[in-house]
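Exam revision sheet. Question 4 asks you to relate a sequence to its structure. Input first:
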Amino acid sequence: MAHEVIDGTLLREMILSGAALLEKNKAEIDILNVFPVPDGDTGTNMNMTMVSAVKEIAGVNSGSAQDVAKALASGSLRGARGNSGVILSQIFRGFARGMDGHDTVDAGLLAQALDTGVKSAYKAVMRPKEGTMLTVARYTAAQALQRARAGGGVSDVMDAVVESGEYILAKTPEMLPVLKQAGVVDAGGKGLLLIFKGFKSALSGEAVEAAQAGPAEEAAPMDDAGIIKGDLGEIEYGYCTEYFIQHIRRAVNETTLGTLRANLEKIGDSVVVGGDDSLIKVHVHTNHPGQALQHGLDLGELDQVKIDNMWEQNRRLKADGSAAQEAKKYALVAVAMGEGFVEIMKDLNVDKIICCEQTMNPSIEELTNAIKATGAENVFIFPNNKNVFLAAQQAAEQAAVNGGNVYVVPTYSIPQGIGGVLAFHPEADFEENRERIDNAIAQVYSGYVTYAVRDSVMDDKSIRKGDYLGIGNGQLLESGPDMEKVIFDLLRRLVQDPDGVITVYFGQDVTEDEAVALADRIGDAYPECDVDIYNGGQPLYYYIFSVE
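Answer key, structure tokens:
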């Protein structure tokens, strides 16, 4: 059946079909990693982002395309995981903007929405690279526009998207040498193409059905130790009022948001307003919650309204003898992988710890909630993984920190995170701490030892499935069938100072006796270095090394 336009019902079917096809192939995408290591997570991250979007769409009863698209945008943003998930959410955010004001979408509008999604995604990435998911999005949108201008219908446009997507995806190894050396196409581009293929299937009346539901995938729970309660002194404004504004009735820019902030500041404090013309988040402490809600209603519909009586909370806490300390000046939030690393972070007085497996990165929402839960004026976030960094930046922008500072420390490894936390000084001011932490992480060299999950070629080196891999500072440096040789060859590349410190963190697949014996041999090889050993408990990586 040929469709001339897409309404909300059909768009919902397209999105569900795309999500289902992605979910069925997520393991295949995870394998498409530049490094042939067992922690590929692009498919998992994109899938979890789509799961969040589908959940939000399920709550939409409207048959309007713009309403379904807005749910797609807001749900994917709230659930975005990893760089691929964040970029996908930004594509959908622009996609929704392109459908704004339209209950039905024709071929021209569909193509324009795809193009707007590309522009939104490129703006979200500081230094876009070609040969990635962005390239696939850009090229397919361009072909969609061309097909629509030639008079094609919505099915023709999606045909062009899928055809051009397959073509450009196959070209990604020619654009990025690391893909060519690894013998893979871009994983994010593959995931996006699968979503588009699901869209096309739904338009053809052959929507992909979701797999039989099983246990929901969830990140490991966030560590709740040390949550700071509000001060129980005199409360000037008694109602903590929070809500989202959706289905916004007019264009939103910084002036619009500034006016809303100013109106809320007239009736309260702790005002936080953020968002755009698809979704706005509002937080205010006020004695007039009705007025606070009315200011939001002037812009659009309210969702997830939450009003807490802080006077009553105060009385209950006092009755329980649970008066809390004043909000902290500083708080540290860190992502950790492995029980041992979680315990290390606790010992270092990190306030909030998000424990997750390597293939289950925390979502923007989880990171945002962790920042907010600290109640601190100034927060330092340690993502400790390059694939978490972009999500942490988005969370920092969204978090309601009552006018304080949130700094996402550029830690791409757990050793860097530990080094940064150790450099923090609670008596120093914010900028001094930022400088101290940045200087500290620059002195840390990180090494990882894992195994190859497939045959591959990198930097003209042949890698066989099962080989041990030595990764240093994000680069594959050593490989071979002998783990100890790989370890010592890796350390030779990492150790810069003969009087430095080498720290060995052993994983869950290594016994303590094995790790101690290795540390002794490292000490013999580097007699002037201090060698420390800790149980990191990390999955997938036999050893993680910190060299300072």
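Marking note for examiners. The chain has 20 helices and 17 strands.
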